[in-house]
C-alpha cells in the first residue's frame, strides 16, 4: 500500500509538467564530491544552485541504481538502492529534499522492460524450475526461432533477440543487449513487483518517472512485438496506481515511434485526460529539425508537425535536441537517414546503430547562430523542452570512446584539473574529460562563460527567463503560417488563461545560412503590435496587407502580439481612404446586378477597368470593346450570397469567356485584405453598405463550393446546367464546413485555394467548350493509380444546350510540398554555389552537398515521368488515350512544325539583333548562314521517328510544373499550353515532347543561377559559379535521361532506326529551343542568349557548329 505522500510545498498544479523545462543529468558525470573520479549525489546537491540559476525547473536523472554498468546503469541489478559509486540512499533522499527546497522537481527512470542479468530476480529465475512463477519472471524458450518477426534494435552488437543461458538450459529474450533479459509482464507477479518499486520511489518524493523502452513490454507470436494492445494494459495499471495515490506525479513515455503510434501511449481519452502516460517524447520531430537546417527548407519540420495527431488536453509532448543516447534516426525514412548520416556524420566513427553519437555543438560545427536557432525552436515548439547537461555551454564529445560514452563525458566546470569535475587522478576518472583545443575544458567551461555576458551559457539563461514569462509556450495551441519563402518557418502559439486573458506569440525562424525576407499573412491579427520578446522593442503594427520581416542568417524572432497602445513612438499611421468605387444601389437581392441600371454600370464602366488589372486576364494588350455578363446564377447561403457568372469579353475582334463569380461583402465582414483588394464596386442597400468583389476571395464561397461538391448539386442557368461532381476520394477526406481556407499567392492563369490542408480548389478563369485536359488527364491517371500527381477529387462543369461541357472548377488532392522544382532547384543551386565559394569547406558540405541532391532529384523526375508515360502508353479502349504509332505523315508534320517554329524564332531574333552582345550576334550569323543545313538536319531527324509511339503527354512540362515532396517528384498542371486551343492540347504527341521540356528547363535553371546578382567580389567567384552550374547541367541531364530511359525500357516504340530515341530527343529539344527564342523575343528580350546558346548546343553534331562550346542539350 502506498504511503501518504508528503505534499509538495511549491507549484500546487497537477499539470506542472506542461510548464516544465527539463534538465537531463548523469549523476556519474556531473560533479565528484569525494574525489574518487565518479560523480555522486553530494556533488549534484552542491551544483543545484547552478541548475536553478540556469532557469530550468525539473531535473531528470539517468539511472543511479546498483548496476554492473555495462549499459551505463540501464542494466539494473537492484531497483531499491543507490549505486555505491554515486552515494547512499540517504544522499538520494537529501538530494530530493534539496531540489524541492529550490522548487526543482525530480524525474527518474523506471526501467521496467528489462533488468541486468545480475539482478536477484534473474539469478533466481535461471535456477528455478521451468514453468514456475520464479522462472516466469523473464521470457524463456527452448529454441531461438520464436518471435522471428521482431527487429533487432542494436544491430551493431546483437545478432539475435535470444541468448542461451547454460544455467537455465533455455534461451532468454532481450530486445536490447544480451546481458539485459526482458521481464515477462504476462506474469502477474512481475506487475506486482514493478508497482511496488514505483511506489517506493514515489513515496520518497520523486515527481515523475520516465518509462524506458515501453513499446517492447509484451511479446506475442506473429507480431513485430512493438506497440501491442497488451502493452497498453500494463500502462493503464501503472497509471491507475498514480491517479489513485499520487495525483501530482507524472509518467513520461520513451516510445521511439512514429507520432500516430506514440499517441496511443497517452491512452484512451476521458474528458481532458488519457489513462496511460501524461507525457511522451516526440522522437520524429528531433531529426527533422537538423534536416531543415541541412536542406535550408522548413518542410521537414512542418511536415512532421502536420502528421502529429491531436493528443488529450492534459497530455504533453516532450521535445529535445540531444540526450544521453545517440541522435536516433529510427523514425526517419531510409533516404532521410542516409541524408542525415552523410551530412552530419561523414566520419563513420560518429555513427552507432541507427543514429549519430554527437553532441549539439559538434553537430553544428560550433556555429553559435545555428545552436541558438535550434534552441529557439526547442523552446518555442509545442511541448516540454528537455536540455542535456553541458549543451548550455556548448560542450563537445569524444567519438573515440565506446558505445554512447562519447556524449556522457564529465561536466566542464572550470579550467582547473579535470575541468573542475574532480580532484582525482585523471587516470581514475569515470570517463576522460574533453581536452581538445576547440571543446576542451580550458576553452569551454561554466566558470569562464558565467563571467562573459555574451557567452552561450548566459544567452541560454536569458532565453529561459523570457520563455518563463509566457504560458503559451508550454500550454498554447500551434498554428503554422505558410510564407512563400520556404526558408522561413513561422508559427503562432496561442493560449487563453483561466482569467480569459489571451496570449499570442509569433515565432519566425530563418533555417538558411543567408539573410532572408519573409512576407507573412497576419491579417487575422490586424491592429495588433508585434513586440520582440528578447529586447522588448515594438515593431510596426500589423495591417491587412502582408507583414514584411527580414531575418539574418539562421536568425529568429519571438514576438508577443500586443494591443495597439504599445505602438512604437516613431510609427506614423498612413492616411487610409476607401478606394473611389462606383456605388451600385440594390433594393433587395443580389440578382439586381443583372438588371439595368446596375448591369449597365458593371458592363460599361466597372468591368472594362477592373479586368485588365487581373493577372489571369489574357487580353491586357488590347482595349476591351465590350464586356457582357453572359449569365448569373444565385449560389451560396443567404448570409453570403454569390452570383456564379461568366463575362464575355470582346476585344480586337476576338471574343473570350472568363469566369467571375460576384460576391457581396458587407461592411462589417471586411476583416481580411484579399476580398477588399479584389473589390470592383461599392454597393448600398438602404442604410447598409458593402463591396462587390470576386467571390473566389471569400472563404464562405469556397466552403459552399465544397458543400455543393459533396452534395452533387445541380444549378440551372440560361446557358445550361452547372453540375457539381465529386469522386469517392473526396468523401474520404472528411472536410467539414469549418475547414481552414488558404489562398495560394502564386496565381497564373487560374485561381487556387487550399481547403483543410488536403484539397486544392482551382477556379478556371478562361472558360472554353470541350473536354478540359486537366480534368481528363487527372481522371485517367487517378483511375490508373499513378501516385505522383494531385488526385482528382471533383469538378464543376457547365453543360450547354448542345451538350458540350465547359470546365469551371476542379478539385484535386493537395500535395504538402517543398515548393515547385524550379524554386527548389534555384535554392539548391544557390547552396551549391555558396559551398563552392566558401573558403573553409566544412566537413558536412564536403561529404554531402546540394549538387548531390539535385542529381538525385533529376533521376527521380526522369523515373516518375517514365512511369507516367508507360501508363499513358498502355492499351486502352478509350480512343482519346489509345496509343498510336507515328506514320510518315506524322513525321512530315513534325518536320514542318519544327521548321516553322525555327523560321519564326530566327526571324524574331533578327529583329532584336542590335540588342545582342557581339558573341551572340556571331552565333546568330552562323545560324542564318547555315539555315538550309539546319532545316535538312531537322528533316533527317523527323524521318527517323516513323514507328515511334504517340500518346497523351503532359504537354507543357517544365520544372515549374513539378512539385518536390520529400525529395521526390510529383507532376501537376496537365492543362497544356494555355495559349493553344483545347483540341490541340488534347492531341497525342511523342513522349519526348515532355522529356525535352524538362531538359530545356534545366538549361534555364542554370542560366538563372549564373544571372544571380554577384554579391561576392572575390576573385574567381564567377568561375566558381560557372563550374558549379556546368557540373549541375551535366549531372542533372545525365541522371534524368538515364532514369527516364530505364523506366521506359518496355515502352513499345516501333522505331526502325536504332538511333531514333536520340533523334526524338534532339528534334523536340530543337522545337522547344526555337519556341523559347520566339517567346523571349516577344516577352523578355534580355533572356534571348539562353535559348540561343541552347539551340546552338543542340546543333553541335553539324560541322559548322561542332567547335562551339555551349550549355545546350546533350542526350
From TrEMBL:
<feature type="domain" description="Glycosyl hydrolase family 13 catalytic">
    <location>
        <begin position="24"/>
        <end position="423"/>
    </location>
</feature>
<dbReference type="InterPro" id="IPR013780">
    <property type="entry name" value="Glyco_hydro_b"/>
</dbReference>
<keyword id="KW-0067">ATP-binding</keyword>
<dbReference type="GO" id="GO:0005524">
    <property type="term" value="F:ATP binding"/>
</dbReference>
<protein>
    <recommendedName>
        <fullName>Maltokinase</fullName>
        <ecNumber>2.7.1.175</ecNumber>
        <ecNumber>5.4.99.16</ecNumber>
    </recommendedName>
</protein>
<comment type="similarity">
    <text>Belongs to the glycosyl hydrolase 13 family. TreS subfamily.</text>
</comment>
<dbReference type="Pfam" id="PF00128">
    <property type="entry name" value="Alpha-amylase"/>
</dbReference>
<dbReference type="InterPro" id="IPR006047">
    <property type="entry name" value="GH13_cat_dom"/>
</dbReference>
<keyword id="KW-0479">Metal-binding</keyword>
<dbReference type="InterPro" id="IPR012811">
    <property type="entry name" value="TreS_maltokin_C_dom"/>
</dbReference>
<dbReference type="InterPro" id="IPR045857">
    <property type="entry name" value="O16G_dom_2"/>
</dbReference>
<keyword id="KW-0413">Isomerase</keyword>
<keyword id="KW-0106">Calcium</keyword>
<keyword id="KW-0547">Nucleotide-binding</keyword>
<dbReference type="InterPro" id="IPR032091">
    <property type="entry name" value="Malt_amylase-like_C"/>
</dbReference>
<dbReference type="InterPro" id="IPR012810">
    <property type="entry name" value="TreS/a-amylase_N"/>
</dbReference>
<dbReference type="InterPro" id="IPR011009">
    <property type="entry name" value="Kinase-like_dom_sf"/>
</dbReference>
<dbReference type="InterPro" id="IPR017853">
    <property type="entry name" value="GH"/>
</dbReference>
<keyword id="KW-0808">Transferase</keyword>
<dbReference type="GO" id="GO:0016740">
    <property type="term" value="F:transferase activity"/>
</dbReference>
<dbReference type="Pfam" id="PF18085">
    <property type="entry name" value="Mak_N_cap"/>
</dbReference>
<comment type="similarity">
    <text>Belongs to the aminoglycoside phosphotransferase family.</text>
</comment>
<dbReference type="GO" id="GO:0047471">
    <property type="term" value="F:maltose alpha-D-glucosyltransferase activity"/>
</dbReference>
<dbReference type="GO" id="GO:0046872">
    <property type="term" value="F:metal ion binding"/>
</dbReference>
<dbReference type="InterPro" id="IPR040999">
    <property type="entry name" value="Mak_N_cap"/>
</dbReference>
<dbReference type="GO" id="GO:0005975">
    <property type="term" value="P:carbohydrate metabolic process"/>
</dbReference>
<dbReference type="Pfam" id="PF16657">
    <property type="entry name" value="Malt_amylase_C"/>
</dbReference>
Amino acid at each position: 500500500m502506498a504511503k501518504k505522500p508528503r505534499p509538495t510545498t511549491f507549484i500546487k498544479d497537477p499539470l506542472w509538467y506542461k510548464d516544465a523545462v527539463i534538465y537531463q543529468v548523469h549523476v556519474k558525470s556531473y560533479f565528484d564530491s569525494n574525489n574518487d573520479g565518479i560523480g555522486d549525489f553530494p556533488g549534484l546537491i552542491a551544483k543545484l544552485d547552478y541548475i536553478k540559476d540556469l532557469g530550468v525547473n525539473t531535473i531528470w536523472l539517468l539511472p543511479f541504481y546498483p548496476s554492473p554498468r555495462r549499459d551505463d546503469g540501464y542494466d539494473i541489478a537492484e531497483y531499491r538502492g543507490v549505486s555505491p559509486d554515486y552515494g547512499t540512499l540517504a544522499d538520494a533522499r537529501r538530494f530530493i529534499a534539496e531540489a524541492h527546497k529550490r522548487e526543482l522537481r525530480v524525474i527518474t527512470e523506471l526501467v521496467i522492460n528489462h533488468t541486468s542479468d545480475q539482478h536477484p530476480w534473474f539469478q533466481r529465475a535461471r535456477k528455478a524450475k521451468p514453468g514456475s512463477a520464479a522462472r516466469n519472471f523473464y521470457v524463456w524458450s527452448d529454441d531461438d526461432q520464436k518471435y522471428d518477426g521482431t527487429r533487432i534494435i542494436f544491430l551493431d552488437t546483437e545478432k539475435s533477440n535470444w541468448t542461451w543461458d547454460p544455467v537455465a538450459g533455455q534461451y532468454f529474450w532481450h530486445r536490447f543487449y544480451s546481458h539485459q533479459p526482458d521481464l515477462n509482464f504476462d506474469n502477474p507477479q512481475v506487475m506486482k513487483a514493478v508497482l511496488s518499486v514505483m511506489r517506493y520511489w514515489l513515496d520518497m518524493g520523486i515527481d515523475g518517472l520516465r518509462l524506458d523502452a515501453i513499446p517492447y513490454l509484451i511479446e506475442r507470436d506473429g507480431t513485430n512485438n512493438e506497440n501491442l494492445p497488451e502493452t497498453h494494459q500494463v500502462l493503464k495499471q501503472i497509471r491507475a496506481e498514480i491517479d489513485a495515490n499520487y495525483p501530482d506525479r507524472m509518467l513520461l513515455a520513451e516510445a521511439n515511434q512514429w507520432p500516430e503510434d506514440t499517441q496511443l501511449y497517452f491512452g484512451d481519452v476521458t474528458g481532458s485526460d488519457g489513462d496511460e502516460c501524461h507525457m511522451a517524447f516526440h522522437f520524429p520531430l528531433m531529426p527533422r529539425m537538423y534536416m531543415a537546417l541541412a536542406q535550408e527548407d522548413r518542410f521537414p519540420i512542418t511536415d512532421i508537425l502536420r502528421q502529429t495527431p491531436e493528443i488529450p488536453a492534459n497530455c504533453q509532448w516532450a521535445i529535445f535536441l540531444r540526450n544521453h543516447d545517440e541522435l536516433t534516426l529510427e523514425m526517419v525514412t531510409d533516404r532521410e537517414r542516409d541524408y542525415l548520416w552523410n551530412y552530419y556524420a561523414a566520419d563513420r566513427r560518429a555513427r552507432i546503430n541507427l543514429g549519430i553519437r554527437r553532441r549539439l555543438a559538434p553537430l553544428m560545427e560550433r556555429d553559435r547562430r545555428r545552436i541558438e536557432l535550434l534552441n529557439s525552436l526547442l523552446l518555442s515548439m509545442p511541448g516540454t523542452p528537455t536540455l542535456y547537461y553541458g549543451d548550455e555551454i556548448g560542450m563537445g564529445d569524444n567519438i573515440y570512446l565506446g558505445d554512447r560514452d562519447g556524449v556522457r563525458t564529465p561536466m566542464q566546470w572550470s579550467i582547473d584539473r579535470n575541468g573542475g569535475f574532480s580532484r582525482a587522478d585523471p587516470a581514475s576518472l569515470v570517463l576522460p574529460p574533453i581536452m581538445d583545443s576547440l571543446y576542451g575544458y580550458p576553452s569551454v567551461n561554466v566558470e569562464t562563460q558565467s563571467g562573459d555576458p555574451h557567452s552561450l551559457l548566459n544567452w541560454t539563461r536569458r532565453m529561459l527567463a523570457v520563455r518563463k514569462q509566457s504560458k503559451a509556450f508550454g500550454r498554447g495551441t500551434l498554428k503554422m503560417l505558410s510564407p512563400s519563402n520556404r526558408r522561413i518557418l513561422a508559427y503562432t502559439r496561442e493560449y487563453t488563461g483561466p482569467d480569459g486573458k489571451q496570449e499570442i506569440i509569433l515565432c519566425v525562424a530563418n533555417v538558411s545560412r543567408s539573410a532572408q525576407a519573409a512576407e507573412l499573412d497576419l491579417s487575422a491579427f490586424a491592429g495588433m503590435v508585434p513586440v520582440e520578446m528578447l529586447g522588448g522593442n515594438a515593431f510596426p503594427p500589423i495591417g491587412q496587407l502582408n507583414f514584411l520581416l527580414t531575418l539574418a542568417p539562421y536568425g529568429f524572432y519571438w514576438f508577443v502580439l500586443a494591443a495597439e497602445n504599445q505602438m512604437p513612438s516613431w510609427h506614423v499611421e498612413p492616411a487610409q481612404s476607401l478606394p473611389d468605387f462606383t456605388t451600385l444601389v440594390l433594393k433587395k437581392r443580389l440578382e439586381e446586378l443583372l438588371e439595368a441600371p446596375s448591369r449597365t454600370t458593371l458592363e460599361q464602366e466597372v468591368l472594362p477597368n477592373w479586368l485588365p488589372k487581373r493577372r489571369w486576364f489574357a487580353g491586357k494588350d488590347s482595349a476591351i470593346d465590350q464586356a457582357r455578363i453572359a449569365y448569373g446564377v444565385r449560389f451560396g447561403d443567404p448570409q453570403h450570397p454569390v452570383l456564379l457568372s461568366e463575362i464575355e469579353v470582346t476585344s480586337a475582334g476576338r471574343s473570350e469567356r472568363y469566369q467571375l463569380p460576384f460576391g457581396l461583402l458587407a461592411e462589417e465582414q471586411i476583416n481580411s485584405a484579399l476580398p477588399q483588394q479584389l473589390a470592383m464596386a461599392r454597393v448600398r442597400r438602404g442604410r447598409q453598405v458593402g463591396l462587390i468583389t470576386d467571390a473566389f476571395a471569400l472563404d464562405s464561397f469556397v466552403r459552399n463550393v465544397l458543400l455543393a461538391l459533396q452534395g452533387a448539386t445541380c444549378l440551372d442557368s440560361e446557358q445550361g446546367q452547372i453540375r457539381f461532381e465529386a469522386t469517392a476520394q473526396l468523401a474520404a477526406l472528411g472536410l467539414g464546413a469549418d475547414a481552414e481556407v488558404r489562398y495560394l499567392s502564386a496565381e497564373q492563369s487560374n485561381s487556387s485555394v487550399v481547403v483543410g490542408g488536403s484539397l486544392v480548389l482551382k477556379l478556371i478563369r478562361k472558360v472554353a467548350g470541350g473536354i478540359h485536359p486537366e480534368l481528363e488527364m487527372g481522371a485517367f491517371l487517378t483511375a490508373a493509380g499513378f501516385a505522383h500527381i494531385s488526385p482528382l477529387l471533383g469538378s464543376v462543369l457547365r453543360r450547354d444546350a448542345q451538350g458540350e461541357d465547359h470546365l469551371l472548377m476542379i478539385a484535386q488532392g493537395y500535395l504538402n510540398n517543398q515548393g515547385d522544382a524550379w524554386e527548389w532547384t534555384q535554392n539548391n543551386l544557390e547552396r551549391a554555389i555558396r559551398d563552392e565559394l566558401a573558403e573553409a569547406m566544412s566537413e558536412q558540405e564536403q561529404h554531402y552537398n546540394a549538387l548531390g541532391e539535385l542529381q538525385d532529384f533529376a533521376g527521380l523526375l526522369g523515373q516518375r515521368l517514365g512511369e507516367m508515360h508507360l501508363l499513358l502508353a498502355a492499351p486502352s479502349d478509350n480512343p482519346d488515350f489509345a496509343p498510336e504509332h507515328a506514320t510518315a505523315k506524322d513525321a512530315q508534320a513534325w518536320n514542318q512544325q519544327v521548321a516553322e517554329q525555327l523560321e519564326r524564332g530566327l526571324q524574331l531574333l533578327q529583329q532584336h539583333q542590335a540588342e545582342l552582345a557581339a558573341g551572340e550576334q556571331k552565333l546568330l550569323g552562323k545560324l542564318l548562314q547555315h539555315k538550309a543545313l539546319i532545316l535538312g538536319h531537322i528533316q533527317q531527324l523527323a524521318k527517323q521517328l516513323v514507328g515511334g509511339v504517340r500518346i497523351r503527354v503532359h504537354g507543357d512540362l517544365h520544372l515549374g510544373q513539378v512539385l518536390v515532396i520529400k525529395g521526390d517528384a510529383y507532376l501537376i498542371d496537365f492543362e497544356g499550353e494555355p495559349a493553344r486551343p483545347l483540341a490541340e492540347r488534347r492531341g497525342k504527341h511523342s513522349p519526348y515532347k515532355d522529356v525535352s521540356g524538362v531538359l530545356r528547363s534545366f538549361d534555364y535553371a542554370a542560366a538563372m543561377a549564373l544571372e544571380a546578382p554577384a554579391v561576392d567580389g572575390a576573385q574567381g567567384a564567377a568561375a566558381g559559379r560557372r563550374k558549379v552550374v556546368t557540373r549541375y547541367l551535366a549531372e542533372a541531364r545525365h541522371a534524368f535521361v538515364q532514369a527516364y530511359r530505364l523506366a521506359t525500357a518496355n515502352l513499345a516504340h516501333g522505331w526502325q532506326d536504332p538511333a531514333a530515341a536520340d533523334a526524338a530527343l534532339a528534334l523536340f529539344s530543337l522545337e522547344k529551343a526555337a519556341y523559347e527564342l520566339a517567346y523571349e523575343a516577344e516577352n523578355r528580350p534580355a533572356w534571348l542568349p539562353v535559348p540561343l546558346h541552347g539551340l546552338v548546343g543542340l546543333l553541335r553534331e553539324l560541322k559548322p557548329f561542332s567547335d562551339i562550346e555551349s550549355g545546350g542539350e546533350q542526350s
